[in-house]
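sanity check this:
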Amino acid sequence: MNFKILPLKRPNDILFGLLFSGIFGANPISIDGNFDDWEGISTSHIDYQGDAQEADFYKLKITHDNEFLFIYLNFYDGEFLLQNWNEFHLYIDSDNDSTTGYNHHGMGAELIWNFGSRLGYIYIDGNQSEISQNDLTLRIAPTITSSEFEIAIALESSALTLNGEQILFNGTLLVSEIEFGGDFIPDDRGGLLFSISDSLIDDPESISLEKSNVDDIRIISYNTLNEGIIDIDRQIYFKRIFQALNPDIIILQEHNEWQFIGGIIQSWFPDDEWNSSWTYNDLVIFSKFAILDDALMSSGRTMVALLD
């Protein structure tokens, strides 16, 4: 089986720090790493090129549906990992009042999110509280390095409703390359104005979980967080995800307890015969195909397996 990765191409358009509009329409978006549903959405801002330390912001789009605020962001050059190895910060002024919240770049931000650290803060009534991804129902795709990303934040999150004291209608938004300095999008102080309509928006088209081709091989790679699937309270959620995706190969990381995991996976798919690799540290591979060999790489953190 041969695979070829083709580069993404963009028209050679020359664009300079253009602000198109602060009032954006409502559109259903699927956070799936496929950006086709953004093509018909107007660009909110185009940033100047060449004003960054490393990550040079290019385009920003903003829209929403009934549940989420959606943000599209891409770069002039290079690929980045949004969940790690960066100091990208998102600032949202939820009450559109620069005198409240955290004062930064002409904004009064109620929400600050540090993508690389996967944590943030909300500033409400003079109080600062640390928040996690779950507090925002934060969704990001892709989860690998990329030159473009789509982001969703729940409209009913405490950061956007000010702990339930408002319904978000107008706000401002800013993304920075690092916390202080580097590139901003937009560059102008005060952020980019956006509005949330109260119209009812149709849900996005459902994504089929069926394979596009029956001969495709489906792989799940999952960091299960320590005992992971062995934890009876979490096991039902893993089972639902794995059975829905019906993989051919399962790759687990951070799985410290390996004694029972093979039986659990087999019980979820009783009509299939699953083969398991040796467990290296916290790494293990399960496969519907025979495992001919496996080994731990020299780093001690990576393993490989040869499948038939």
